[in-house]
Amino acid sequence: MSAQISHKLAAVSEVNYSCILGWTAQDGGIGNINAAPTFADSDGPDNILGTIDDNLRLAAGSPCIDAGDNAALPPDTSDLDRDGNTTEPTPLDLDGAPRVFDDPSTADSGHGTPPIIDIGAYEHGDCNGNGIADADDIAVGTSEDCTGNGVPDECEADCNGNTIADSCDLDESTSEDCNGNEVPDECDLADPTIGDCDGNLTPDNCQSDTDTDGLIDECDGCPYDVNKTAPGGCGCGAPDDDTDGDTVPDCLDICAGFDDLIDSDSDGTPDGCDQCPGFDDLEDADGDEVPDGCDDCPYEPVLAEPSEPGYEITCDDAIDNDCDTLTDEFDSDCLCQLADALAPEPAAFEKNRYLSFSGANSGRRTAVRVTLTDLPAPFDAFDGQIMWVGEPREISENAGKVAPPPDPSFMSARLQCTPYYMDWAEGLLHVTDDEIVPGAVYNVQAIDCACDFDSEVNYSAPLTITTSKWGDVVADCTTCPCGPPDGTVGIPTDVTAVLDKFKNLVPPGVPCAAVMKARADVEPNLPDWLVNVSDVSHVLDAFRGFAYPPAQTPQPSGWIGPGGCP
User: Fold this and answer.
1) Quick one: pLDDT at residue 300?
2) What is the reported pLDDT for 506?
3) Considering the domain boundaries, does residue 329 fall inside one?
4) Are 509 and 382 in a shared domain?
5) pLDDT at 313 over 50
6) What's the pLDDT score for residue 320?
7) Is 543 helix (H, G, I), strand (E, B) or coil?
8) What is the rounded CA–CA span in Å between residue 270 and residue 250?
9) Is the dihedral of CA 147, 148, 149, 155 positive or negative?
10) Bond preceding residue 507 cis, omega within 30 of 0
């Protein structure tokens, strides 16, 4: 009994005519019992103790019926029956039924003049307060008992107020229970923890939440993005990050790294990227991309191209057709020169995801064009498309992306939509992007910066580069360097070579280091200049016969064009 009653004071409480778990005669008191009270449904339809649907009315045969103490009934100080008498014993129970009612089928075991009060908040025998014993109500049909538990339906839980006990609503399908919580759906709709955000009269927890963010798809502005419930400034799937803290999200930032809101000359270009401070960058009378405020010759555009009749050199300080740092105003040599062909990699090893070549034309600025010549399905939709090699970066062979000196490194570049002019004669270059795929053919050509890149006669002879079969990285690494791809994918060759590169190991007994990163970096769809377990896994998939592209690679039907180029 000590677990049920705690003595906070020195005096010992006396408990009489109560139902107490663990009570024994040695605990004292009069009329106490320790038998189970036998409630109608102690855990309610949801089968969870302590929730609002618990039915704590006494069931037939309960030892608490007619077992209380009439003398312990407090006076009706709140005048529950509104008869003006506040000194009479409390006349009603928690249901509003008579507080004292005799159950003729139960012998009185309590104290007082019959009828004897029940132990508990509800009086058994007349739960609806109509003066007729519940058993008689049910027997003569004045009350229904769809549950068969001896309690009239009007005394059972009825959350929707349709005069049918909830449990019978569900059994007879007069109410639905889509989430299986044994509560009619129309009652779930009123529960703020469940709700009906789209107003379709179906509880939210019965509807789809694809991104599992707690908001159903119909109410989620980004149903496939767990981090967003509304597109925001950047749209679904893209974070509204503001790296430079200027309140403009990165996706809309005009001048990354600077405050877009600071525009001293009010020309629409933030100070951090202002080409001509103090003047409107958008005013360019001669169209030479130099704002008039900073243009020595603001009204003299180029009158014609060098190859056209009547070409006239003008005072346009933005034009340097032969790329020799002398503007055309002071330069008489601005003719287009045919570029030399690019040189293949000396070892000529085919790679899965990289095109490797050396530049030419030392001392002149050229652009390098890549033609997607013959790609496997589904990428063959882009055969004939043209892209350009972007600015090279020095990449670490061992870890990370940008090479930290003195790490071994290699030069790599991505593809882009527009020409990038520079002196490429600086050694071997490895070019990669999501359009460079296994089993494909590419033509690589150079063009001088003084030439019209819309004219095919101005391009160097094409260097044709073929990529290796999907997952085929080496023939073997028993000699140094590792042998070129051999048309097959094997575990002791290709998988082991990529795994060794991931670990940056020198295989036992082999006199050379692991295969180069440009050969081992086979994934993802946009190669990441890293070699990790995922690269190993994809080569293993290729060994098992899985075709390229991997499942996560975007399909061409979802692209505007290679690299997003029109």
Assistant:
1) 54
2) 58
3) yes
4) no
5) no
6) 54
7) helix
8) 14
9) positive
10) no
Cβ distance 208 to 199 under 8 Å?
no
Segment 509-536 mean pLDDT: 83
Give yes or no: residues 70 and 144 share one domain.
Answer: yes
- Asked if 329 and 347 sit in the same domain, the reply is no
Residue 536, pLDDT above cutoff 50:
yes
| Residue 497, token pair as written in the block | 């070579």
Distances (CA, A) of 450 to 323, 334, 339, 364: 7, 7, 11, 10
Total residue count of the chain as it appears in this document: 566
pLDDT, position 295: 66
Please list the residues that pair with 112 across neighbouring strands.
Answer: none
Distance CA 148, CA 462 (A): 90
Count CB-CB contacts under 10 A for residue 425: 16
Most confident of 280-289, 295-304, 405-414, 463-472: 463-472
Q: Which helix (H) or strand (E) holds 366?
A: strand 366-374
Residue 198 DSSP one-character state: T
In this structure, how many other beta carbons lie within 10 angstroms of the beta carbon of residue 18? 21
**What would the pLDDT profile of 70-119 be if each residue is shown by its tens digit?**
999 999 999 888 888 999 999 888 878 788 888 877 899 999 999 999 99
Predicted confidence band of residue 314 (pLDDT cuts 50, 70, 90):
very low
Of the candidates 147, 91, 82, 148, the residue with the CA atom closest to the CA atom of residue 123:
91
440 shares a domain with 534? no
Q: How far apart are CA 493 and CA 403, in angstroms?
A: 28
Q: Which residue has the tokens 């975007």?
A: 554
Domain that holds residue 502: 491-558
Q: At what angle do helices 533-543 and 496-503 cross, to 10 degrees?
A: 180
Beta-bridge partners for 370: 387, 444
pTM of the model: 0.45
Q: Is 250 helix (H, G, I), strand (E, B) or coil?
A: helix
**Are 427 and 551 in the same domain?**
no
Residue 23's pLDDT is 87
In a domain, 240, yes or no: no
- Kindly report the number of other CB atoms within 10 A of residue 194's CB atom: 17
Structure confidence at residue 2 (pLDDT): 59
Strands 441-448 and 366-374: antiparallel
Bridging pattern class, strands 441-448 and 463-466: antiparallel
pLDDT of residue 16: 92
93 part of a folded domain: yes
Helix (H) or strand (E) holding 60: none
